[in-house]
UniProtKB/TrEMBL annotation:
SUPFAM superfamilies: CNF1/YfiH-like putative cysteine hydrolases. Gene3D superfamilies: CNF1/YfiH-like putative cysteine hydrolases. Belongs to the purine nucleoside phosphorylase YfiH/LACC1 family. It comes from Lancefieldella rimae (strain ATCC 49626 / DSM 7090 / CCUG 31168 / NBRC 15546 / VPI D140H-11A) (Atopobium rimae). Purine nucleoside enzyme that catalyzes the phosphorolysis of adenosine and inosine nucleosides, yielding D-ribose 1-phosphate and the respective free bases, adenine and hypoxanthine. Also catalyzes the phosphorolysis of S-methyl-5'-thioadenosine into adenine and S-methyl-5-thio-alpha-D-ribose 1-phosphate. Also has adenosine deaminase activity. It catalyses: adenosine + H2O + H(+) = inosine + NH4(+); S-methyl-5'-thioadenosine + phosphate = 5-(methylsulfanyl)-alpha-D-ribose 1-phosphate + adenine; inosine + phosphate = alpha-D-ribose 1-phosphate + hypoxanthine; adenosine + phosphate = alpha-D-ribose 1-phosphate + adenine. GO terms for molecular function: copper ion binding; hydrolase activity; S-methyl-5-thioadenosine phosphorylase activity. Keywords: Hydrolase, Metal-binding, Transferase, Zinc. Pfam families: Cu-oxidase_4. InterPro entries: Cu_polyphenol_OxRdtase (IPR003730), Cu_polyphenol_OxRdtase_sf (IPR038371), Cytotoxic_necrot_fac-like_cat (IPR011324). This is Purine nucleoside phosphorylase. CDD domains: YfiH (cd16833).
Amino acid sequence: MAALVQQRKSGVTLITDTTCPYGVTLAFTERGGGVSCGEFSSLNLGSACGDAADAVRRNRLRALEALGAKQYADNLVCPHQVHGEKILVVHSAHKDEVAAVRTEATQGADAIVCLAKTVPVMLCFADCVPVILAAPGGFAIAHSGWRGTIAHIAAKTARLLVEQTGDRPEELLAYVGPHIGAPDYEVPQELIDRFVDEFGSEVAPSDLGGCHLDLGYAVRTALAEAGVLPEHIFEVSESTATHTDRFFSYRAEHGHCGRHAALAVRLGN
């Protein structure tokens, strides 16, 4: 059975499923093992947070090397994330299609469905919820901040992955990466009310006074609605805001930080 474990490769710490489900090599990165300095220290993979472009490039190569995909760096798809619900699909590794998807991704997208081999996909995070989906015919990665979560982007991505591959929802494996935990995520009552209307009262744990959001619960609920079996959902439990020694946290670091990532690729030709 799949499980997430911590693993150090090429100096980079990954949280990964070492079984490579359905031939998908996947991981969530931690913040150590890179070349960035100061508030971006050290494996910052985000290109839009103020870090030096060369440092980000070198860090991405390190992350890809740890994933065993450095040779496919020219195929990397890493969209400009805009807290929306646009999903792009990579059908093949043909250079023209990869180039077209990469160009479209610069205009904004928050999830990528990939059916091709040798095309790595990376999305970046600092409190928002990373979701990696593995299926027999491909994989997907979604970025689920509070806006994406209330829009059910994880469920929409799961449904599109199933539509594109012809696989069954119950075959999907879902990996929910490091994100801000409910104890660290106090939000206004108006937002609590919206989430309770959408996902039920458990999304705002009563033991925390009902004023904190559990984004992980909302994402799991959305995935289940899309047909992903609860026993096929695996989650990193540590809160990014509590564990800034391991992860970046926009909230805990007052907006001055780098980004860790969710990465996946199907290796081979």
